[in-house]
Design goal:
145 residues; mainly beta; OB fold (Dihydrolipoamide Acetyltransferase, E2P); 9 strands
């Protein structure tokens, strides 16, 4: 990441080292949400309408995974030529909620297994106007890409 670094999606994650996803927590029932929720609690047992922003766990375990073998349509920005990539549904350690995301570069479905420990990382999605736009991804813990 030699250029200036900016988030590809503002307000969804920090650019800190290490990065964290930014979610919300219902002040009535304690349910966590990602992306942030601000108008009403989606927990069917709750009528809450007040939330606080929270930094979510940056580690978790693979709940499920798959590969993306087709080029996603706009507004997603894919490399040209398109290269398939892995996607992981990761259950966050503390919040016990599932967050979907791409798997870090250098890993594919053959490297993954259900229950594997994962950590949140940032990687460039694309460059625009001299800035690397970064997105969150999941990386197997303790493994170099």
């Amino acid at each position: 990441m030699s250029n200036a670094v900016v988030a590809a999606i503002d307000g969804w994650y920090t650019l800190d080292d290490p990065p964290q996803l930014i979610g919300s927590r219902c002040l009535s029932c304690g349910t966590y949400f990602f992306p942030r929720q601000g108008s009403f609690c989606r927990n069917p047992a709750c009528a809450g309408t007040s939330f606080e922003d929270v930094k979510l766990s940056r580690t978790g375990r693979i709940w499920s995974y798959t590969n993306a073998c087709y080029q996603p349509p706009p507004p997603f920005v894919a490399p040209d030529p398109f290269r398939p990539f892995a996607i992981a549904a990761v259950e966050l350690a503390a919040e016990r909620m599932i967050v979907l995301g791409q798997v870090a570069a250098g890993f594919d479905v053959g490297d993954l297994r259900v229950g594997m420990d994962m950590e949140l990382v940032l990687e460039p999605l694309h460059s625009e106007d001299g800035k690397d736009k970064v997105i969150w991804k999941w990386k197997p813990m303790g493994r170099a890409s």
